[in-house]
Design brief:
Helix content is about 40%, strand content about 15%. The chain contains eight helices and seven strands, in the order E-H-E-H-E-H-E-H-E-H-E-H-H-H-E. Keywords: Oxidoreductase.
Amino acid sequence: MDFKLENKRVLVMGSSTGLGFAIAKAFAAEGAIVGVTSREMHRAEQAAEQIPGSMAFMCDLLQAQAGKQLVQTVSKPLALGGIDILVTNAGGPPKGLFSELKGEDWDAGYHGLWRSAIDAIHAVLPQMRERKWGRIIMCTSTSSKEPIPKLTISNAYRAGLIGVMKTVSQEVAADQITVNAIMPGYTKTKRLEEFKIPEKDLIANIPARRLGRPEEFAALATFLGSEQAAYINGQTIACDGGLIRGL
């Protein structure tokens, strides 16, 4: 199936490793021009070297207005020249029980997860509205639906992003812009390895009886960015092997 992504300009935030990298690579494979980002330029450049048709950009999502500034930089004529598809993505915030977390932990989560996405979306919408076409894909987590123990900050902010997605999707639908959220379950990445939970214990709770692959999550993102997905809007879609039990 031709997703009609040839020469579409895609910005994938937090894309030097993990799920973001897989998404950037998948869009590039469909002929898109992709902006790859990291808080360290050399990491962004290393990632871009592995993705044909991509450009590297540095952006520390923990800094104030990072999302807005990134969109402005990527949209310049000598960069991508605009953004047709925005993928908001960020690494996990500090983990811990509510009683263990400090104010600075919440501040880091706010800027890295919440405000970076809000600012980027706010900055990109005018150009999408002018073109009467756009795709915004927000990477969240299954914790948006079912809280995960010790991921208190992620549980809180990622669930809030679902509310933002639902609200914005209604406001921009008439401009032929879709806004959707995608939720990875337990996926085989370095981030998951940091939790140091035995893989067999994780798999025991997944109906598919295996971990997800980054490429599977990336395939979902790529489809939502396609022309064929033009009527899918305001949805929260999990790629989790059946992990979420609720409706």
